[in-house]
Give the backbone structure.
Amino acid sequence: MGKITQLQIYMLFSLYLFTTILGFRIGSIVKIASYSTWLCILIGGFLGWALAYVSYRLAIKRPAEHFVLYGRHIVGKWLHYPIVLAMALFFVFTAAVLLRELQDFLIQIYLLTTPSWAVSALFAFCVACAVRSGIGVIFRSAQGVFFMSIAGIIIVPLFVHNEVDLNMAVALWNHFNAPSLWDGSLFVASLYGETAFILFLFPYFARQRKTMHSLAAAVLTSVIIILSNFIPALLIFGPDLLGNLTYPELELIRYIRLGAFLENLDPLIIVLWLVSLFVKISLFLFLAVNTLAQTFSLTDHKPFTLSMTALMVGFSLYMAETTMDIAQLGKKGMIAFLLIVEMIPLFYLAVDLIRSPRHRNPHQT
């Protein structure tokens, strides 16, 4: 298998970051931070990149080795293996949450009479095929749709600028609340902090010392795209309505008034979300499958693919009864849990630095 290029890293994580936030999370962030959401996105994006940098510092010390294998030499196998197994379960659960959100969106908007299990099973089959094919296929999938996705999302604010209430723009810099700003920034940081999981992918990367440059470019790209769509939506709907919309980006697209040809652009967001969520879910499931395979000293991750896919589908179908129940996962407890998981590399790095030879007594034998 060929190495994953830095361009592919940039493209995948750009899609990875902005599509989910715009599609499913922006309303929750606005409900927390209101007009200061734009600042939360800037601060949270930087904090998330900082979490990824910690993972990079740990991974670059052993660039050719997998974290699942060498981590036991840092903290001991009795602590390391429970941690990596818990993270494998976390990866599956996160993939299941995304699958459930996609399932609810399709059923509520377009497939009203379709059983939920059918939507999940069909999409999960595609994900399983990608995961069995390997990490290279997942990154190439993101590369293949990158420019189409960027173009599709960038044109939306250009078509709705006439609907914007510019008199509301002054509130963007004179409505600040420190507790809300902090909570919103942590929410965004927990989403951007998912880039810290490069620790599990690092041996697959080419030109590894350029990884943080690629991630910085991806974070910057996603922040620009999110703000270019969020600010018009805020100035059209206002923070109260925007914070209570389930799919704000879809509603923004429906505001386009350019005649019959461009008036109904709903398929645009469907293409964007389907492909981008396919990439993100596939990546999380691959992380889970590959982590398990390495934990049990298997050279091939394929034996775990179908069983972990079935577990993901089971989680997605039974984790909650309604879309509102899924939204409760975004409360402070879940944000704190995400940040704790994303800071696990910091724990390993701290222990590794303490135990490294340069910190030992030079007279010790």
About this structure: The longest helix spans residues 77-109.
